[in-house]
Amino acid sequence: MPEEKARSPFDFLRGKPMMVVTAVLVAEVALFYGVSTQEYIPTPPPLDRFATDIGPWRMIRQTKLDVATENLLKADDTLTRLYGGPGDVDLYVAFFKSQRAGVTPHSPKVCLPSNGWTEESSRIISVSVPGEAAPIPVNRYIVSHQEERSLVLYWYQSAHRVIANEYLAKFALIWDALRYRRSDEALIRVIAPISGNGQSEAGGEERAIQFIRTIYQPLKQQMWTGPTSAQVR
User: pTM above 0.85?
Assistant: First the structure.
């Protein structure tokens, strides 16, 4: 019988998914470090100026990330708020003016499990929002922690598009840097509790989508309608 070839602990690096990820990372390195050109850096108003009262929603509280978390995320601006109205929803926004130095948004699919939350389901849904010709893609992520369950809706947004898929967001970043000479992006996340007090999964999704439809255009206008400045990287 032919001798069986010993398996290497690094065989997974030869898989197609890993090859795709590697190709994206190589392209990013070549783009951000190999090309010397001007990059357009947006200068939007601080996120904490975003409306505290919007539609039927009212801000209950705003919290600030601790220093250790801020140092880990390295976002240029963040917003963490709890809104109340037709139900409670958490809004989190992390805005990055440039990703040329390799600082990028952290996926909730990495951050939430590292904080003790367990994934129950994950898929991408389409959400119709006012002012957009087509629905936006949004990650629908159900997580649980002990007796708590939450619906998490999140997406990646730039001046030119909305993307849910993390890998596609990387490719879009490369395209935007080449075509528009900019790499600004925001991670926008909305969380609705779906356990306790009769809060069902369907009710949580309806509440979160209603909130997204209310804030989408005002938040977009605040982040990407203002002036830009150019600087050499």
Answer: no
